[in-house]
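Many introductory courses stop at the sequence. We go one step further.
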Amino acid sequence: MRLLIRNKKLNFFSHIAFIALSFYLSFIIFFGGFLGYVAAKYITKKAIKGTKMKTGYIKLAILKFKNYNFHFHHWMQGTIALFLYIYFSSNDNHFIISFMGGVIAEDFLCDKNFYKVFEKEKKEE
């Protein structure tokens, strides 16, 4: 440690390297989160809900139990995928972790009913 303090050139370059690494990681984390958010937004808007002209081509993940529906929101899917990636992965890929964070954040920010997991089935008369 004393070598870094006494050698001013080495001390200067270590600070520059630290700042460059900080900017690089910040960019990777921001870009991953942004792409995760945009991808989730696009899939939610186009594929699941559909456009005005046609319905979506991906069905919602809804499981039926007796007279209740269990809606498996994509914030739940993203959280499970994130935990599985962190548990089974041997490396820390900041891009993938922040991408999954963007997917999770999109559901919390854009879905008004993100908290509705169990709903009673509506009876049609």
